[in-house]
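Now for one record:
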Amino acid sequence: MEIINIRRSVREYLDKKVEDDKIELILKAAMQAPSACNQQGTRFLVITDKALLEKISERFQSMRFAKNASFAILFLMVKENLIAQVMAPQDASACVENSLIEATNLGIGSCWCGVYPREQRVSDAIELFNIPSDLEPFAIVTYGYPKNSDALKVIDRFDREKVYYNTFDKE
């Protein structure tokens, strides 16, 4: 539970490369995510090229910090021939979340930036990365060692007022 409690969106990174073996561990964690009917319909484009990270910063206003990341992963959904196609976004979300948790476990900061279902972001990602027509961009996650040492600290967000049991009657 501690890893979940300290996971945060980190947008400021040290100028330090994340090691290849750690990138692979993050990808392995993502691929361990559950998926509907075990369809495993998420694909992963790892972006380590600084020029491409700079282009992400320029193209996507909400991702200006991407240029300072060590790397990013573009999570993509397979668009056809899945058993439960409608569940592809949930499957991709589970992959993203697993990657965020493993990054935190490794002392690496991360920030999930939504692409899907925003049409302009989807088309921008397709154009920027020359994505084949059988894949749809879902999210871009940036990763790097946090610049701020307090970035990964526990914050308790539990709120009993948001929890219901069996029905919405509170009496």
